[in-house]
């Protein structure tokens, strides 16, 4: 839980071995779907979990909790695939450009509690390559309900009441929660759904707006809408989330392949480590193509301009070489 350090070399070696064997990065999802016995992987099962924890240690004395929760219904099921593919870019920017110190990343997935067999999946906060393992254990159910809503509110409930993060509890510094989807949330956290999927501790249902307010006490909350998804181009989706989170916390993304870079630059700008133009220069140095850079720049044009940018340091040329140096990030 949260120990170790990310290694791009380890990631690349695993990817090469996987591709040589002909296996999918999401082999667990494909296996359970073929079996007809769709069930959450034990490492992501939210039922009975007291807390997913992000903790400081001698190795990581000032951690920062980052959560990324995907809608995996319908056309949204391809988003985790893209982030898994570009995970080194995300970690490269966060770590070696020092956008944020000691990030511990949790991945999870959101479905529809009314119709899906796996409506909520939540991994652990990790600092090393185990975050990739959690990501690959996600079931890409690609289901969803007929109501134009998914169970985002259930994920918000879990993040508010079943995560414990030292950055906030020790230092009153908020973590980050990115939700990625193309639908609206249900109007309330349903007590019966919580009982069956998470725990039995909820005495009454909770209004969505109250749940959002509770999450925002300890997380910087962003909702990313991939416009290429089935509902992503609908103004009603954007308006729904803008009214509840604020315009600068709802990001429309026209190229899903740039999801990792978008998350990284959102964090870097919010931390005051970079301005958007600095982030664009980092993407160029990392070798991002022109369409990715354009997509990220367009998506993040809604973010406020920082007046106190701390210039980040380090080269993106060899990510794993940087991870092996003695400089503590």
What report would you give on this structure?
The chain is α/β, with parallel strands linked by helices and 329 residues long. The protein is 39% helix and 16% strand. The chain is built from 14 helices and 12 strands. A 6-stranded mixed β-sheet has the order 4-3-2-7-11-12, with helices on both faces. Strands 1-6 form a two-stranded parallel ribbon. It has a two-stranded parallel sheet with strand order 5-8. Helix 10 (235-245) links the parallel strand 11 and strand 12 (250-253). Helix 4 (87-96) packs parallel to helix 11. The longest helix has 14 residues, at 8-21. It is globular. The relative contact order is 0.15.
Q: What is the H/E order?
A: HHEEHHEEHEHEHEEEHEHEHEHHHH
Distance between the termini: 18 Å
Largest sheet: 6 strands, mixed
- Number of continuous helical runs: 14
Tell me what portion of residues adopts beta-strand conformation. Answer: 15-25%
Low-confidence stretches: 315-329
- Characterize the overall form: globular
Radius of gyration (Å): 19 Å
How are the SSEs ordered, and which strands pair?
Blueprint: H1 8-21, H2 27-35, E1 52-54, E2 64-71, H3 79-85, H4 87-96, E3 103-110, E4 120-122, H5 130-136, E5 149-150, H6 152-161, E6 163-165, H7 166-171, E7 175-180, E8 184-185, E9 188-189, H8 191-197, E10 206-207, H9 208-216, E11 219-226, H10 235-245, E12 250-253, H11 259-270, H12 276-286, H13 290-299, H14 319-323
Parallel strand pairs: 1-6, 2-3, 2-7, 5-8, 7-11, 11-12
Antiparallel strand pairs: 3-4, 9-10
Helix pairs in contact: 4-11, 6-9, 12-13
